[in-house]
Specification:
single chain; alpha+beta; Alpha-Beta Plaits; seven-stranded mixed sheet; two-stranded antiparallel ribbon; 5 helices; globular; Guanylate cyclase domain-containing protein
Amino acid sequence: MNDRPEYRAMLSYDIESYSTRNNADQYALQAAMIRLLDLAAGAAGLGLLDWKRQPQGDGEFVVLPSTLHPARLTGSFADALRQALDDYNASSEPRLRLRLAVHAGPIHVDGPAGSPGRHAVASGRLVDAGPLRAALLAVQEANLGIVVSDDFYRDYVGQGYDGPPPDQFRRVVVKVKQQEYTAHIYLPGHNVHAIGELETPPEEADDQPQRPGQVTVGGDWYGGNVVNTSGEGISYVAGRDFTLPERKPGR
């Protein structure tokens, strides 16, 4: 086990409105998501064999190899993924829309149960960003919404590498629990600046009331890991909280 952090680019992606779908649709969306992500990675020349992938049911957390230039994630990879999603949705049901968070920083790549580190947590927080959800809600034609961290925007988007120019990104503030992140949103093929206020949709607002008989597990407790699956079959993910049935005494 390597306990020294390594600088890596990372992706977190999530299917929009996954929990509202029935079992058959969730299965179909999972299959399409993996196939289209693999297709886009192949088209962009990103070596899939070197990806460290942590499935999350409705998405994945991916640590990319150190040899990959991070700017390609918002350039050739984002272009290929958008095209793959557009082509799929033109002829398939149910519709698949993805939220994609792009970040880079030092993490422990091979932790005891995942990839620990605050940057892994930040990636998990960003993919759930309220402004990103609001942007996709406002632009129904878009099948892909991307959010990049402020560090990634400064170090790669703003440095003239291949990819969309900086003015195609919109600066936002992401507030999750007691944390606040500066980030930048990009809707490939659409003008994100033409949208009005990017307020978090009410049904997605943070700190929703906890229902009776439920207990919330904080994602930050796990230090950036995907950790052991609970008895309910749920895998805890860095930076994302989960609501579980409250266990009764003696159970």
